[in-house]
Amino acid sequence: MALIVQKYGGSSLADAERIQAVARRIAATQTRGDQVVAVCSAMGDATDDLLALARKIMPHPEGRELDVLLSTGEMVSCALVAMALNAVPCPAVSLTGQQAGIQAGGFFGKGLIAAIEPQRVLKELEAGRVVVVAGFQGVSEDMDVMTLGRGGSDVTAVALAAALKAERCEIYTDVAGIYTADPRVVPEARKLPELDYEEMLELAAYGAKMQPRSIELAELYNVPMLVASSFTDTPGTAIRREVSMEVRERVRGVVYDLNVAKITVQSVPDRPGVAATLFEPLAAAGVSVDTIVQNASIDRTTDLSFTVARTDVRRALEVVKPVAERIHARGVTSNDALGKVSIVGTGMQFAPGYAARMFRTLADAGVNIEMITTSEIRITCIVNEAQVHEAVRTLHRAFRLEASGASK
C-alpha cells in the first residue's frame, strides 16, 4: 500500500459536476489499494471573488482579516469534496489547515510553513478514510489563520507529502502537464514527459503555472511529483531528481510572467551602504526584489533599478520614496507595463551561444530589452508587456521547441 498526496486546483473544482469527477478519481486511487490525502484549492475564481468583495469594503484590507476571509474558499471546496467522496461511497473526512497540523509563520498573505504535525491526518488514514485537506493555509503561533500566497495549495501538498513520507505528490490541474511554452500562446507547444527539479524550479519561478516554493520543497525532501490533468487520463509530466542525459542537453522551454513592475531610484549617491539602506526596508515590508541593475556611476551618483511583482508595486513605492528622500536621490519612477520572457534548460551551462541567439531573435522581432538577468540554466529578459506573447512565440520557433529534437 502506497500513500499518495493529490492536489486539485480551482479549475478542477469549479462546480458540483467537477467536484464529483474529482471524487471519483480519488476513490479509484483508494480502490487500487493506496491511501490518499487530497489537498484542495478554492473553487474556480472563489479567491479572486472574495478578494474583490473585501476591496469593496476596504480598498487595502488589513492582512489578518483578509487571510481569515480568503482561507474560507479552500474550506468550502474540501468539505464538498469530502461529501462527494462519502456519497460514492468512499469514507472521507475534511480538515482545515489547522486541523491537519500545518503551522505557519512570516507575513499574512505570504505565510511560510514552519512545521507540520500530522497526527490527525495519520489517525484518519489508519481508520481507512481519505483525508481532504484545505490548501493554502496554516495557523500561526498566535492561532491566527495565515495564508501561503498564490499557489499556496501546491506548497501544502508537497509539504504534506514530505511530512507523511508519501510515495509521490500528484498535482492535478486543467492542463495535461508542463509544456515547452504556454499552449494558449504557442499552439504548437509540446508536453514535456519529464523534468528535473532544477529546471522545473526555474520554469515555475519565471512563468510556469506552479508555485516555485513547492518545487524547492520537493527537491529538498526528494518528493517525486507528477503534474497532470484532472479531466483526462493522459500521462502528465514527471518531476524528479534524475532525468536522462539526453534530456539535459537542450533548451527545455520558454516561459513568461506578466506580474512585473520596475522601480528606478534616480541619481543615488554612490557610497557604501546605500543599497542596504534601500533594500532592507523592502525586505522588512515583505516585498521580494528580483532583477537589480545599477548603472555606471556618473558624478558620484548612479541610477538603481529593480523589479518587483506588479501586485507589490504600491507597497514598494510607499517604502522606497521616503528612503530616496532621506538619501538625497533625485527621484523615483515606476513602470508596471512590463513582462519577463525566459528560456530555461540545463544545457545552457555547458555550451555557448544561447544568450546571443536569444538577443538576436528578440532584436529581429523588434522587441526591446529593458533588463537582463541570468542563472546557470536560465536567461530572462524584461520587455514591454505588449510584446511578451510575440517574444514567446518567436523564441519558441528560434529554439525549435515545437520539434521533438529541440535545439541544442
What amount of the residues lies in strands? 25-35%
Residue runs with pLDDT of under 50 for 5 or more positions = none
Order of helical and strand elements: EHEHHEEEHEEEHEEHHEEEHEEHEHEEH
Share of residues in helices: 25-40%
Instruction: Give the N-to-C terminal Cα separation.
Output: 42 Å
Biggest sheet strand line-up: 3-6-2-1-9-11-12-10
The CATH architecture of the domain at 3-174 can be named as: 3-Layer(aba) Sandwich
Looking at CATH, the homologous superfamily of the domain at 3-174 is Acetylglutamate kinase-like
Quaternary? single chain
Mean pLDDT: 92
Principal-axis shape equals globular
Q: Helix tally?
A: 11
Q: Structural class of the secondary structure composition?
A: alpha/beta
Number of strands: 18
The CATH class label of the domain at 3-174 is Alpha Beta
CATH-defined topology of the domain at 3-174? Carbamate kinase
Secondary structure layout plus pairing:
Layout: E1 3-8, H1 16-31, E2 35-40, H2 46-57, H3 63-87, E3 92-95, E4 102-107, E5 110-116, H4 119-126, E6 130-134, E7 137-139, E8 145-147, H5 152-164, E9 168-173, E10 194-196, H6 197-205, H7 212-220, E11 225-229, E12 237-240, E13 253-269, H8 274-284, E14 292-294, E15 301-308, H9 313-326, E16 331-344, H10 354-364, E17 369-375, E18 378-384, H11 388-398
Parallel strand pairs: 1-2, 1-9, 2-6, 3-6, 9-11, 10-12
Antiparallel strand pairs: 4-5, 7-8, 11-12, 13-15, 13-16, 14-15, 16-18, 17-18
